[in-house]
Write a structure and sequence with these properties.
This protein is α/β, with parallel strands linked by helices and about 270 residues long. It has helices spanning about 5-15, 40-55, 65-75, 90-95, 135, 150-160, 165-170, 180-185, 200-205, 235-240, 245-255; strands at about 35-40, 60-65, 80-85, 105-110, 115-120, 140-145, 175, 195, 205-210, 220-225, 260. It is built from eleven helices and eleven strands.
Length: about 270
């Protein structure tokens, strides 16, 4: 049974209310640009969408969730005009399934992976090969995004494996549906430690960064963007260009992202 654009937007907006930009709701007529974006982009993209609306008078509806869930929804017919993933794997999947337009794809941003704790936690440690993460948990759980599907979780698992810590903590993982949910478990005191992006930690005043993971312990954290194959919205390419504008760059950098130059290089 084919689902209409109106139905999909209603379902997605209600399902992701906590992660959707309040200033840019999707209209029933489907005239607004609809962007599917990794949950870790919320603060920066909300700011950019607001700037876009101020400059053009046009709204952008943004649905935030884990990259794997978003591309699966697009595959099932969700009418997104643009997809921004938190890793290249899920964008590659979209390209292989012909869900995105390859000629519009580019590597937009970089990020860092960090270990966090509640702001008042006494935990202090250096992340290095052989570090005793299990002891630092003191019987508690390590909050992470789903380690088998969500980019932040996959990066985190790879780093812990490389550092020799995974086997001792793998049975103490509290897996969340996306990285922002993993952040909240630590922010609310439900987990003593968590693995999230540096930008997520910076957005939450009730947590602190214990240490940063060495970048050579996991694949490069890259956020690719592309217009979807099914998009017919004439604003899609214009908004894509705006994401590469000086104003957008400043918004991304304020949140701690690294803006990548052409070819995916750090600028």
């Amino acid at each position: 049974m084919c689902m209409t654009r109106r139905f999909w937007i209603g379902m997605l907006i209600s399902a992701t209310l906590a992660f959707t930009a309040p200033s840019a709701p999707a209209t029933a007529q489907g005239r607004n640009l609809l962007v599917f974006a990794a949950a870790s982009l919320k603060n920066a993209l909300d700011d950019i969408a607001s700037q876009w609306q101020s400059q053009t008078g046009k709204k952008v509806a943004i649905s935030y969730a884990a990259s794997n869930n978003l591309i699966r929804q697009i595959e099932q017919g969700a009418p997104a005009d643009m997809f921004i993933s938190a890793d290249t794997d899920w964008m590659d999947y979209g390209q292989q399934k012909k869900l995105v337009k390859p000629e519009t794809r580019s590597d937009l941003l970089g990020n860092r992976l960090v270990l966090i704790a509640p702001k008042d936690s006494p935990v202090s440690m250096r992340i290095q090969p052989g570090f005793d993460l299990a002891a630092a948990l003191k019987g508690g759980r390590l909050s992470m995004a789903n380690v088998d599907a969500v980019p932040a979780g996959k990066y985190g698992k790879a780093a812990l494996e490389k550092l020799g810590a995974w086997e001792r903590v793998k049975d103490q993982i509290a897996q969340a549906e996306n990285v922002r949910a993993a952040l909240l478990l630590v922010a609310h005191g439900e987990a003593p430690l968590g693995v999230v992006y540096e930008t997520d930690a910076a957005s939450e005043p009730t947590v602190k960064i214990v240490d940063r993971f060495p970048e050579d312990t996991h694949p490069p954290i890259i956020y690719p963007v592309a217009v979807t194959t099914g998009s017919t919205n004439p604003d899609a390419l214009a908004f894509l260009a705006f994401l590469n504008s000086p104003a957008a760059r400043q918004a991304f950098e304020r949140q701690g992202f690294t803006v990548l130059a052409a070819g995916g290089k750090r600028s």
